[in-house]
Each structure stands twice: as C-alpha cells, then as structure tokens.
Design goal:
With 197 residues, the chain is α/β, with parallel strands linked by helices. It contains five helices and twelve strands. The chain has one domain (2-195): Metallo-dependent phosphatases (Purple Acid Phosphatase, chain A, domain 2). A hairpin with a 2-residue loop joins strand 4 (81-85) and strand 5. InterPro entries: Calcineurin-like_PHP_lpxH (IPR024654), Metallo-depent_PP-like (IPR029052), UPF0046_metallophosphoest (IPR051693).
C-alpha cells in the first residue's frame, strides 16, 4: 500500500494543492493535524479534501479543535480511536501533547495524563497517527532539545506500530527516528511517501 502523509499545512494552499495532485498515486492519504492557523480558515481550507475523502484519514492538531475538524470534513478524524483500512489497523490522537506554554490564542492541547488515558484501551496497531511527536523522536525544538510526549512514546512502545506519523514541532520537520522497530516520521507539509507490504 502506498501512503502519502503530511502535517502542519496551516492554510498553505500551495502545499495542499500539491498533496491533492499527488494523491492520485496514493492508496491512503494521512493528515496529522494543523490544517488551520489559530482556529481560523479551517472550513474553506479543508473543503477540497472532499475529493479524496474515501481514501483519507485525519487527526486534529492544536490549531483546530476535534469538533471543528469533524464538522468541516467528511474525512474520518481519529482521536482516541482506531479504524481498519486496506488490512491495516490505524489509531489516531490529535492536540498538542503536552500543552504548549501560554499563548495569545487558545491552543487545543491535552495533558500527558489525558493522552495516556485516551490511548490506554488501544492495543497493537500498524500505524499510529499523532499530531504531536513522542519524546525523543521527531521532537527537537531549537534551543530546547526534545520536547515530545512521554505518553506517546509509551504508547508507541506498547502498540508496536510500524509507523508513527506526527508533526507539530516545525523545527524537526523531515526527521526520521525509531522507537524499537517503529519508524517515527515528523512529516511537515511536503509530500511524504511510505509503503507497507
């Protein structure tokens, strides 16, 4: 299966349109959150994804709420749930985890404890889609080091996915790390291709 994955479009229509054009060559398209910018512009921006809704999966970021993204698209939005697609079990969790420092706008965040509780019922999966990265992988912030989520790292160790797709930390877009046999990919808004057997 050919997978096209991305994150953090933040209303970038050029990046969105490039993804939609490339999507014809994908079996599955995964968006790991932050379609909007500070909760603005979401509905109009995601509307073109309706053309590929049958082969797409999303999770929300911290720049749009779960309810807002679900209201704006018919693409399934995973948050503490799993779905089966083409023989793969895929789980998703959105939000900023852990919460960002105070901002002049309201970031859609979860605490480590909330994320741990949301993910606890989920067993082994093939792919984990998270807006935020796990601690120690794809989570390097300039001047701050590793700032990812302990709960997501523990989930990756327990669920043993083949891939963990994330974004959120712009400084580490394009990073590829591993947690055991899992490839962790901080995606960013480009064209990121992956294949499963």
């Amino acid at each position: 299966m050919k997978i096209l994955a991305f994150s953090d479009l933040h209303l970038d229509t050029g990046a969105r349109d490039a993804i939609l054009e490339a999507a014809s060559g994908a079996d599955l398209v995964i968006g790991a959150g932050d379609f909007a910018n500070q909760h603005r512009g979401l509905e109009e921006f995601v509307a073109p994804f309706e053309a590929i809704a049958g082969k797409a999966l999303f999770t929300c970021g911290n720049n749009e709420t779960l309810d807002a993204l679900r209201a704006a698209t018919s693409v399934p939005v995973l948050h503490g749930e799993t779905t089966d697609f083409g023989g793969l079990t895929i789980a998703g969790i959105g939000c900023g985890i852990p919460p960002l420092p105070p901002l002049p706008w309201s970031s859609f965040d979860m605490t480590e404890a909330e994320a741990e509780a949301l993910l606890a019922p989920i067993d082994a999966v093939d792919i984990l889609v998270s807006h935020s990265p796990p601690k120690g992988a794809g989570d390097r912030l300039s001047g701050k080091g590793h700032i990812g989520s302990d709960a997501l790292r523990e989930a990756a160790e327990r669920m043993t996915p083949r891939f963990l797709f994330c974004g959120h930390i712009h400084d580490d877009w394009g990073a590829r790390d591993t947690i055991g046999a899992c490839t962790v990919a901080n995606l960013g808004p480009g064209l990121n291709w992956f294949e499963t057997e």
